C-alpha cells in the first residue's frame, strides 16, 4: 500500500489474521495515522490493494474503492467525539441505525454494548455529564455496536488521566479477547502493546522496519524506536566475529544470540542496567568502554537513568544511550548534565541480532 499526503509517503505491506490484535508503533511522523485513515477509507491511496475477510476494500489497479461507511471498519480515536445532543444510548445506537438496522434492534444493541463496557447505568446521560473515562467507554461501545470486521484504535487512552486509562484498557482487552475482534492498535505506549497486542509492527519514515510477536520484538528489537520503548540500548552496524562493527569502524564486543553472519546488517542490544558509569576510563573486565557526555538525568522509580550525548571526538552513535544507576551511585559519581563520563558494558551483556527490514 502506497499513500501520499503532501511530501510524506507511506509504503507498507503486512497482514492481520482474523481475531489477531496488532499494535503499530513508531515515532511521530512515521505514518501511523495515515495507515489507519487509509484502511478506514478516509484517504485515497496511490497504489494499494486492501482486503478484509475476503472482501476487496481498495484495489487501485481495478478502480475499486469501497466508501468508509460500507467498509465495516470501526475507528476509535483519542477523543470520544460523542454527539453532544444525544444520550449515551443513542450515541451507541447511531452506528447500527446508519447500517440499516431498525430502531428497536439498534437500541437493544446499544444497551448490550454499554453493559459490556461497564456503563449500562449511564445510558440516559449526555456526554457533558460523563467523565473522560466514561465517555471513552461509551465510544468503545459505539465502535463495537456496528459489529466491525476490523477495529482501528488510534491512541485510545492518550487523552485519559492516569486513573481512568488502566480501567478502560482492561475493559477493551476483555472485549477484544472475548469477542475475537480483529484489531489494529496505534499507540506510543508500550504498556498498551504488552497488554493488548499479539504482534507488533514498527514504522519509521513511512516504512515497516520490524514486526513480530510482541514479546520477541521487545526482547530483541531491531530498530532504535523499538529499543527505546522496550527500555533497551541499541547500536546498529554490521555483524563481526567479535560482535558488531559500527559505521565509524568502532567494534562493539558482544555475543550473537542467533545465527548472524559477519558483514550482515545487525544490532547490538543491552539493558541500561548493564552499563557502568565512570569519571575516568575503567580498567579490568568491561570490553566496551565509550566516552559520553551526560545529556539528562531521568528518574525511573528506584534508579536514575543517565541519558548520553556524543562526547567531543567520540563515536556519534553514543547519542541517546542510557545507563541506570542508583541514587547513591549518582551521588558518589557527582555527575551533572554536560559532564564528560565513560560508559562501560561487559561483552557478555551485549546481544547481537540480525537487523531486518
UniProtKB/TrEMBL annotation:
Pfam families per record: ABC_tran, TOBE
PANTHER family named among the record's database cross-references: SPERMIDINE/PUTRESCINE IMPORT ATP-BINDING PROTEIN POTA, SPERMIDINE_PUTRESCINE IMPORT ATP-BINDING PROTEIN POTA
Domain ABC transporter: from-to ranges: 1-230
GO annotation, biological process: molybdate ion transport
Ranges annotated as spanning the membrane: none
Domain Mop: 283-354
Name this polypeptide is given: Molybdate transport system ATP-binding protein
Organism: Actinomycetospora succinea
Amino acid at each position: 500500500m502506497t499513500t501520499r499526503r503532501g511530501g510524506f509517503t507511506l509504503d507498507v505491506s503486512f497482514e492481520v489474521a482474523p481475531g489477531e490484535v496488532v499494535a503499530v508503533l513508531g515515532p511521530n511522523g512515521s505514518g501511523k495515522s495515515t495507515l489507519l485513515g487509509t484502511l478506514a477509507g478516509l484517504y485515497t491511496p496511490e497504489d494499494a490493494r486492501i482486503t478484509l475477510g475476503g472482501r476487496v476494500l481498495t484495489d487501485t489497479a481495478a478502480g475499486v474503492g469501497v466508501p468508509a461507511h460500507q467498509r465495516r471498519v470501526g475507528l476509535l480515536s483519542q477523543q470520544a467525539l460523542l454527539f453532544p445532543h444525544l444520550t449515551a444510548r443513542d450515541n451507541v445506537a447511531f452506528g447500527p441505525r446508519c447500517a440499516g438496522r431498525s430502531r428497536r434492534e439498534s437500541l437493544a444493541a446499544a444497551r448490550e454494548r454499554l453493559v459490556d463496557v461497564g456503563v449500562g447505568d449511564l445510558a440516559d446521560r449526555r456526554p457533558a455529564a460523563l467523565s473522560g473515562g466514561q465517555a471513552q467507554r461509551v465510544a468503545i461501545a459505539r465502535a463495537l455496536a456496528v459489529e466491525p470486521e476490523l477495529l482501528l484504535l488510534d491512541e485510545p487512552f492518550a487523552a485519559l488521566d492516569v486513573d481512568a486509562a488502566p480501567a478502560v484498557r482492561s475493559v477493551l482487552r476483555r472485549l477484544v479477547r472475548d469477542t475475537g475482534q480483529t484489531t489494529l492498535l496505534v499507540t506510543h505506549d508500550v504498556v498498551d502493546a504488552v497488554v493488548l497486542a499479539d504482534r507488533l509492527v514498527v514504522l519509521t519514515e513511512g516504512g515497516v522496519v520490524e514486526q513480530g510477536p510482541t514479546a520477541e520484538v521487545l526482547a530483541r528489537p531491531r530498530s532504535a524506536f523499538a529499543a527505546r520503548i522496550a527500555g533497551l540500548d541499541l547500536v546498529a552496524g554490521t555483524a563481526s566475529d567479535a560482535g558488531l562493527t559500527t559505521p565509524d569502524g568502532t567494534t562493539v564486543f558482544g555475543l550473537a544470540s542467533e545465527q548472524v553472519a559477519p558483514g550482515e546488517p545487525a544490532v547490538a542490544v543491552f539493558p541500561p542496567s548493564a552499563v557502568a558509569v565512570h569519571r575516568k576510563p575503567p580498567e579490568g573486565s568491561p570490553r566496551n568502554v565509550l566516552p559520553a557526555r551526560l545529556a539528562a538525568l531521568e528518574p525511573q522509580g528506584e534508579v536514575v537513568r543517565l541519558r548520553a550525548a556524543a562526547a567531543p571526538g567520540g563515536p556519534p552513535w553514543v547519542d541517546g544511550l542510557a545507563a541506570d544507576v542508583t541514587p547513591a551511585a549518582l551521588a558518589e559519581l557527582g555527575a551533572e548534565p554536560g559532564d564528560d563520563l565513560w560508559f562501560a558494558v561487559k561483552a557478555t551483556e551485549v546481544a547481537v541480532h540480525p537487523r531486518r527490514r
